[in-house]
Protein 1
Amino acid sequence: MPKLKTNRGAAKRFRKRAGGSFKRGQAFRSHILTKKSPKRKRQLRSPSDVAEADTKSVTRLLPYS
């Protein structure tokens, strides 16, 4: 059986947590920040979980995580 390749784009975006869920960064934080309130930008800093519906897809992209 050949080795499976990790999707390198996904490897840079997701990290596996101890409970089996995946951690991801928040979107909407890269540009056009002047119109966003400080509270909104501060809350976008914290990581979020990948939705349960998408966890299976992410697991396929990261076979050894």
Protein 2
Amino acid sequence: MIKKGDKVKILTGKDKKKEGEVIEIDRKKNRAKVKGINMVKKHLKATKEKKGGIVSKENFVNISNLLLFKKEKNKPKEAKK
């Protein structure tokens, strides 16, 4: 099961064979956001607080297109003599 903070590899699409960290998961739609993967341009309208313009941000990827890296299990500590 893929969780937030896990390292994953992309299996298909324009970012195939790239690696990144999961930053958000939508379990209902079976999708995840991965840092630096599936970047899209978002046009923002200017407001009093924020400047408008074109912003790049991550978009969701289907979880079936992700491969979870094996986590390194903690090695048991040696007994002190």
Protein 3
Amino acid sequence: MKRINILIAGLLMLSMQACGQQPKPVTQQADYCTVKFTFSKSAKLLKRYAYRSWYNESMRIPLAVSWFLTGDHTRGNNQRRNQQFHPDTDVKNPTTTQDYIQSGYDRGHMCPAGDNKWNQQALDETFLMTNICPQNHNLNKHDWNDLELLCRQWARKYGKVYIVCGPLLRGSQHEQIGPRSRRVTVPEAFYKVVLRMGKNPAAIGFIYDNKGQRQPMKQAVRSVDEIEKLTGIDFFHQLDDRTESAVEARADLADW
């Protein structure tokens, strides 16, 4: 009977794979990807299959997008060739690709499509406009992409990393794109913070200006504490206080 059950389980797994079905993502351990906002800007939490987006409906951009990335999630057969950006009907006045036409900015992913080829739904949802910010083309193509690739390397090296990224808004006035009644805020810069757990926990942050000039990664490195002060967001707050204080104060690529 035991051998029969094992055989049946194996056949079911093969059937799932043949149908393109995959296991659901791992539950977010200790929910390290939940953030707290310490400023007054409103943010609507949108829970997706593989990420969370805290979206500001008046600025029409996400203020933070979080997800965890495992080594297995860095691989997959789903491709983005035929993917289309699409509005998110869960928010008021949803942004569309039309708002970006002739703006001079890319539709920049916060949670990357490349992190979600492991599952078709996860990949599709990265093209929701609530996961998108206006991003300089060269930044999107080069430095930001380089950082995404590095995070995948870290996920394979350490098994899992926790990531939060979003726009860095400086001052009270910001460039906007889109028709007058549908203006989308253009961030002055972008941040990304990364946490790994295990025997030697560590965290690191990055800030890239939203411009076309190349920005060396070493110069973009910041501590999580620094980025919290600039954004008004409390990252990784569900860590125990001692670990949180230690990892958020230090930022060194040599630790990774």
